[in-house]
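Problem 3 from the worked examples.
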Amino acid sequence: MANPVSSAAGANLLDAEAPLLKDVVHGFVDFKGHPVTRSGSGCWKSAFFIIGVEVAERSAYYGILSNLISYLTGPLGQSTATAAANVNVWTGTAMLLPLLGAFVADSFLGRYLTIIIATGLYILALGVMSISAA
């Protein structure tokens, strides 16, 4: 009886190794100092981390956006036109900073360290703004 899963050369595809999944990523180690394998890094743990950070960031962004005009015209005493211009600048900056973050992550720090540093800065800025509004 012929094997239903075989290649044209007759090799069994179920026994074939996937070389990209077994490769060690040269020059990189995990947080314990062990070499990183492609099959052992990332996956759902990192996906949940990134999704959780993004949900929290979007919630904070829209929470601030809805109150920013009131904050700028009230406690900071800006005119409505100046406050609207500042909100536009803030929105544009918030939309373009991921490009800078992508460059830094790809060129220097790596994705997870960049996410952790950017999240820390974001939380610090939110805290400073909340304290100044009180």
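Problem 4, a separate protein:
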Amino acid sequence: MFKEEYEVNNLGSPQNPGPEMFKEEHKVSVLGAPQNSGPVMSTVVHVQDEPGVPDHIVWSLFNTLYFNICCLGFVAFAYSVKSRDRKMVGDVIGAQSHAATAKCLNIWALTVGLAVLVIFFIRFIIIPASYNSL
């Protein structure tokens, strides 16, 4: 087995031998494992995961920047931030309520925004192109 010997001062730290040794020294032999096998005490820390409440903040930010019809994207973003704040405080019910509202507003903002985009595309791209080809 691996064995090392150190000269240790009375504070328990290794010390190089020198001409001025005023502290009491002890010889300690260090083996790989402790010699007496007593009961081993351990501490277990259980870390709880934060609640799995989606706050839809990225989707709300996307709708705020690109499909902000009637400010639905901005209102969805505000509810997403409220949901995140409630989640950080630990109010899971409030976080779920605000997240559901943000999700509903995001769906409406995306649907209305895409409908306006399709109508715009048909009205200003396809219809004038069909008149020019005649």
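Solution to problem 4. The beta strands are 4-8, 26-30. The radius of gyration is 35 Å.
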